[in-house]
Predict the 3D structure of the following.
Amino acid sequence: MKNERTRTLLEDAAQRGIAYRESCDARPVAPSAAAIDATSRFVEPLPENGAPDEEILALLDEVGSPATVAMAGPRFFGFVIGGSLPVSVATNWLATAWDQNVVMHEVTPATAMLEQVALNWLVDVLGLPGGTGGGFVTGATVANFTALAAARHRVFADAGWDVEADGLIGAPELQVIVSEEAHPTLFKSLGMLGLGRERVVRIPVDGQGRMIAAKMPAVDGPTIVCTQAGNINTGAFDPIGDICEAVKPSGAWVHVDGAFGLWAAASPPQAHLVEGMQNADSWATDAHKWLNVPYDCGIAFVRNPPDLASAMAITADYLITDTEHRNPSDYTPELSRRGRGIDVWAALRSMGRSGVAELISRCCRHATKFAAGFSAAGFDVLNDVVLNQVLVSFGNDVTTRRVIDEIQREGTCWCGATVWQGKTAMRISVSSWATTESDVEMSLDAMLEVARRVT
Ligand SMILES: Cc1ncc(COP(=O)(O)O)c(C=O)c1O
């Protein structure tokens, strides 16, 4: 009886999930105002007594699904959001049914092994140095935090200070160098590590947002240099190889925030953009962005895994830490967590090296096509389109905002707004396996039609 009810419920969830995914191709990308208003049906006092499971699932689907933005569909180009691959959704569902807590290898052998394999494959496909270690975290914000915790450990250890034991009060001076264009989450990570969001040296950038390597200060004493692979607006890359060459001989730790840009390494036409990044000490990336696995999944990589373990590992009598195996929780801020690496394993197993390369280069080709379409129609493309990001201006800031609002309302596709070096722009980010050439054409036609009407 119990099994039968579980089966009926999970089959219902699967059917609803399938119907939702099938609807994403055709429905307007943004939800209607009525659908958003209807979410007020969720607002109720905590029920005194429970409700039937099938009723709860139906409520979630009938009220929740129409009020989602179709991020899993082929024409969502906002932020940097990749639609999840069907195989990784399927493995995510099965792994949820497993309900594994990936703390220790001994009690989650299958999951721990899958994550180890996924990590090795990631190091391979991203061209990171052999032996690089890492951990699966919620996203690039926490990946930056995690990798920088390892950096903090190493640079203080080299100066004879045990930061994990003794904290920062009384610690030696530490210099943190960042780009003026570092992603806000990098500053947040530095703040969470006690290194200060503002206690940094900011390096100026060029017109594409790339750090100017010649402006690096002299490096002396404990130093962490944070570089970026993939500017959130332009997609541009810092000259990471040059920066490594300049600062590594003085013992600085170089970190790369490659939330989406690190994936350029997996695609031969784009790999030159990350040249020299293998010489860094740590890297952060997202799998929920360009590897197209479901939320949430980021990865922190550290060249010398013991530096990460020194920052993250704990012991307790009730935990099985005395093991010959890699314990996943030695490399992540969390103790308890889901097996995020399983979806990464599935995505890489399904696409292989060539499929990942094709996904990355296809998205970049789509971005180039968007840029060419807007330029040909007489609108300004503000960035050099080197990756998957395109910035378009439709004239002055007010008009550009109006065009973006109308595009979102029209519903064929969805793009957001930004301000690039003082100018309001529409951001297009092509990050999904689901986007086809005809989605690009359909979206371009719809956006140009709106732009001509509004401008
Ligand atoms: C360069 C960069 N770093 C960090 C992040 C934060 O990633 P997440 O939202 O996955 O934490 C982003 C998000 O777009 C990003 O582009």
Q: What stands out?
A: Residues 369 and 450 are 18 Å apart (CA to CA). Residues 80, 139-141, 183, 185, 228, 230, 232, 257, 259-260, 286, 298 surround pyridoxal-5'-phosphate (CB under 6 Å).
